[in-house]
Amino acid sequence: MFFDRPESGELAVLVHLELSAIDSPDDPREFEELALSAGADPVAFIFGQRATPDPKTFVGRGKLEEIQQTVKKHGAELVIFDHTLSPSQERNVERELNCRVLDRTGLILDIFAQRARTHEGKLQVELAQLRHMSTRLVRGWTHLERQKGGIGLRGPGETQLETDRRLLRARIDSIEKRLDKVRRQREQGRRARSRAEVATVSLVGYTNAGKSTLFNRLSSADVYVQDQLFATLDPTMRRVELPNVGAMILADTVGFVSHLPHRLVEAFRATLEEAANATLLLHVVDAAAENRLQLVEEVQLVLEEIGASELPQLLVYNKLDLLADAQPRIDRDADGVPKAVWLSAATGAGCELLTEAIAERLGEQMVSGQLIIPPQHARLRAQLFAVNAVQSETFRDNGDIELNLLLPRTDLQRLMAPFADVDNPPLWQAESGDDSELDDSEEDFTS
Predict the structure, then answer these.
(1) Which of 25, 67, 61 is nearest to 44 (CA)?
(2) Which residues cross the membrane (predicted)?
(3) How far is Cα 274 from Cα 187, in angstroms, rounded to an integer?
(4) CA–CA separation, 293 vs 333, rounded Å?
(5) What is the dihedral of CA 50, 72, 12, 14, to 10 degrees?
(6) Helix-strand-coil percent breakdown of the chain, rounded to 5?
């Protein structure tokens, strides 16, 4: 954008170092999948080991020469590191190799730039790219200045680098203001759903765990699905009706990855807030992955970063069709509450169990029973129908309305509150034999 770099190509050399200072090293296979998702054509994969990164070139002199020979041998135009390089390290390695160098953060940013489809998604990606680029501006303009003497040559009194930084800062400020507007709009939507007592269920999980396939299966939507990392970038929301519970909002979110760049977390804050404010998180896990426990931990780290780690979670072990002799099932805790569901979103096996488990988790605060409404309070009947709480209705000879209800406890409390001090109030009778209901419910709901 503001600086000159070697031309980028698709023939790439991948570099992965095992650093003894890191307790849990990254999976090289995931790095290769990231490169393929970006459209690179890997021609060589170079491995190495170091105790700590070299401060100048990240890799040592010997490994740098090996990379240089590999680049010349294959005619590669791009070298991708499975690590985060400092701007000086990136610049020094480019100078030695005479080809473009990309680190893990730049690679993920490039994938996101390709996947963004909506206006909001493109803004978020551009913001992350500009923030990343702002630390690397110096490479292209160290030789140019606009502080020249002579008639007709006097510039504005600042170097070209300073000018570009000012333009970059102005663009970042502009995008942040537009994203703030998006954030406020999303917050208004969440407040409206909260007032309507509509639960939000967000799909979260590692990238390529099958979230979008599951989203399409549950909501009958047509979200883009592909067997690649970060196939979904733009968030999608659909209204889904659950038996015995009512409506919920199902949200599909961007997948997480180990060492997710902090700039992306910041740029996608408006989108990730949908997960942070959800009623229930469906944590989708690739059941066929050998390191699935590690992937679960990586997702938990990102959830902690966005403030969503304490939200109720239901684990969803997907891709059961890739496991031999595995059957769909619901795992429950000691209290009988669903904690995990095993299914295959691709084949649909076990998806009805997931619907059942979600209904149980969301229905923990549901109450059922009979409400008798005197004729003078008939407006309450319309309000109950508006929240889809009425299961059946009967009119008595004296004009009373008898309703069998199933609705959230908070809805019933809110609707009954205006009748606390009226004469002849509606009479609530909890379903007999249900210990979860309130005793002496009329007093409880109208006091």
Answers:
(1) 67
(2) none
(3) 9
(4) 19
(5) -10
(6) 40, 25, 35
Tokens of 378: 């008939």
For residue 68, the one-letter residue type is: Q
DSSP secondary structure letters along 296-351:
HHHHHHHHHHTT-TTS-EEEEEE-GGGSTT---EEEE-TTS-EEEEE--TTT-TTH
* Best CA proximity match to 413, nearest among 443, 369, 446: 446
The pLDDT of residue 193 is: 65
- Cα–Cα dist 443/445, whole Å: 6
Mean pLDDT (whole number) for 403-412: 80
* Residue 28 near residue 82, CB atoms below 8 Å: yes
Tens-digit pLDDT profile for residues 138-190 = 544 444 455 555 555 555 555 667 777 788 888 888 988 888 887 788 777 76
Q: Is 421 exposed, middle or buried (0-12, 13-18, 19+ CB in 10 A)?
A: exposed
Residue among 34, 210, 16, 15 at smallest CA distance from 108 = 34
Write out 396-410 in H/E/C secondary structure: CCCCCEEEEEEEEHH
Contact 371, 393 (CB under 8 A): no
**What pLDDT, on the 0 to 100 scale, is given for residue 412?**
82
Tokens 């309450």 sit at which residue? 380
Q: Using CA atoms, how far apart are residues 115 and 347, in angstroms rounded to an integer?
A: 26
Judge contact between 317 and 340, C-beta under 8 A: yes
Would you say the pTM of this structure is higher than 0.70?
no
CA 165 – CA 172 distance, rounded (Å) = 10
DSSP 437: S
The burial class, CB within 10 Å (0-12 / 13-18 / 19+), for 15 is: buried
Q: What is the DSSP string of 84-121?
A: PPPHHHHHHHHHHHTSEEE-HHHHHHHHHHHH--SHHH
Q: Please write the tens of the pLDDT for every residue from 350-392.
A: 999 999 899 888 876 677 789 999 988 888 888 888 877 888 8
Residue 251 buriedness (CB in 10 A; 0-12 / 13-18 / 19+): buried
* Residue 348: CB atoms within 10 Å: 13
Confidence of residue 314 (pLDDT cuts 50, 70, 90): very high
- Cβ-contact 360, 338 below 8 angstroms: yes
Considering the chain, what is the average pLDDT of its residues?
79
